[in-house]
Write a sequence for this structure.
């Protein structure tokens, strides 16, 4: 019979996730790019220019939060915005060459990243078990 979760379990897991997130966020390749900003760059790397509402949907982010993230990326020169052809109300967003380079340097869409490197160093069975357990945890939380 499985034992009931203890407060220590929650603390250890929360601390591990927080530390992993911090370590991945502060690598030289991702300096200044939060996980949310990297996610937007990855979504934009998938193809055609997107409207803000499409980015919000694809990233499962509130449109107002997506707007703040996109504004930062535009200001940093990583994303360009332009009026959509045929609909002057719509703004299309796309990666700039600098955005593509930053994404590649960070490990997304064509490069390696710290998480990939750490996972590659793990025993394959443990890596698969970790992925399975994390997916189960997320499914339970959602």
């Amino acid at each position: 019979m499985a034992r009931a979760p203890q407060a220590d379990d929650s603390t250890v897991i929360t601390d591990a996730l927080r530390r992993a997130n911090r370590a991945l966020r502060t690598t030289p390749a991702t300096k200044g790019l939060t996980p949310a900003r990297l996610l937007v760059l990855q979504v934009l790397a998938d193809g055609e220019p997107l409207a803000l509402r499409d980015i919000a949907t694809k990233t499962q982010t509130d449109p107002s939060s997506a707007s703040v993230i996109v504004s930062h990326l535009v200001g940093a020169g990583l994303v360009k915005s332009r009026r959509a052809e045929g609909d002057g109300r719509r703004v299309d967003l796309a990666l700039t060459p600098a955005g593509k380079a930053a994404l590649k340097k960070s490990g997304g869409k064509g490069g390696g990243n710290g998480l990939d490197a750490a996972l590659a160093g793990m025993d394959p069975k443990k890596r698969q078990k970790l992925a399975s357990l994390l997916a189960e945890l997320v499914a339970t939380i959602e």
Remarks:
- The chain has two domains: 18-111, 112-142.
